[in-house]
Every structure is written in structure tokens, then in C-alpha cells.
Input
Amino acid sequence: MKSVHHDRYGPPEVLGIKDIPAPNPGRGEIRVAVHASSVTSGDARLRRADPPLVRLFFGLFRPRKRVPGYEFAGKVDALGENVTQFKVGDRVFGATGFNFGALAEFLVIKEQTTLCKMPEDWSFTQAAAIPFGATTARYFLEDKGHIQATDRVLVHGASGAVGVAAIQIARIHGATVDGICGPTHLELVKSLGADRVFDYSCEAPSPQSYDLIFDAAGKVNASTTKPWLRNAGRFVSVQKGLAKERPSDYPVIQAWMSQGKLQSVIDQVYPLNDIVAAHRKVDGGHKTGAVVVKIRD
Output
């Protein structure tokens, strides 16, 4: 099978396409024929070993996991023993966690993990753009930010993969939500449900306006945003830890997708052979929503 492969840290050019054997599912596992994956900001940081602490967890001198890729959408292709929740042909989407491996024609994943059947009317490219942003936004808004329907919420970095999900999830919770992003993305963020959108190059929110501020891109800190918070307001940031990988997220997210409450935002779709260009796009720091990689038709 074709897969993205890298055996060292560095710029996008360390990535290449390699033929490797297709994996076979074991007990309690399914094999997915991957139709679409993505390049997230986390994928790019791991490739660069940025921050250097990455090396302690994923390989000191070279990456232990040679096939990257975190989120995916595809069809169940084969079943291991004792699989009960899926059948061959099911359309599924999800995340591989720290096993990675989604940027390949096939991947094997345990059925009792972070994946779910896709809504019928969603394409593979649309579904592959959802898991990273939605699970991250949900974790930081709900678990860390304790979002309430009565809150006024500000999402900083509102046009990235996490930011576009955070705007929509805040609205799902009944909160009033504003966003901060670049000038070319103002209308997009507004269309996702933001009441007001600030152009970070020339605007700033009013003092003491927000109950919860979410730094969705890791580009601000608590001291910068403190003047915008009300008394007892909360600040949460993707810089402060990783979202937990929870299978229980996926039925909730699938329901939001089916109900039209959560939609994907895709910057660009690249073929697998253009993986270097896809990573360059993410390294540029100005993508809108997700950068999707199409692996098969």
C-alpha cells in the first residue's frame, strides 16, 4: 500500500511516499480503507519536533511512528475476530491517536476506540476534517472552560481547525460567541454563528466583556486577554495540555454533524502525492479550517 513516510524530523521535505505492506486486523480490530486524512497543526509540530520535548515521547533521534496522520475517513475493509460494532462496507471517521498512521491507503484500529460511523450525507473529505478540531474544541470549552449557556465566549484564532469548531460548539451550548481572526476570514467566522468578529490586525474586544476566552491557536496568553475578561472569567488555551482521546466524544459529534449543527471547513484538498505541499500550507500558519489529503477516490 502507498503511505506517507518519514524517518527524520525536519521541514516538509522529510516526507515521502513509500510502498509498505498493508496491515491485517487482529482480535477486536478493524481495517479501514482510508479515503481521506488531513494535516493538522499537531502533525506539523510533530514532524518538526517542535517543541523539542516532542522527541522524548515520539523518538529522541528519529520518529518512532514512521507513517504520520491523525484523523481519517474511509470504509471498513476487513474485520478481526470478535468485532461486533462494525461490518465490512461501513463508512467511518475518527482519529488514530498517538498511533498515527492515517496517511496511508489502509490502517488498522481497535473497534472500541475513537471512531464512529459517518452520517449518510457526508463525504469522506468533509468527515476527515472534523475529529481533531471538534474533539479539541469540545475538551477545552467543556472540560477546561466549563462553558455555560449564559456565557459570552471569545474564540481567539477562530478561523483554524480548532477555532471553527469552537465557534460552532459554543453556539450548540447556547452561549453567545465572538471571534478573533485575520481580515480575510471575518465573513466565514460570522457565517458559523459568531455574533461579532474582530480583525486582529486593527481591532480589540472591549474590556471586561467575556466570561470565557478560548485561545484556539496557541497565539495569546492569559495576561494579554485578562483585560477582556469579566470578574471570575476563565481563560483556556491549547498551549495548556492536550485534549483527551475519548471514544464517548464521537457519538455526540456524529449527532451534531447529522443535525447540521456542526459543519466542516476545508481550506484545500491535496492528493496524497502532494503531501509536502500540504505540510507547507500548514507551516504557513494561515490556513482556514482543515487541510485535507485525499488518498483514494
In short: The CA atoms of residues 12 and 280 lie 6 Å apart. The mean pLDDT is 96.
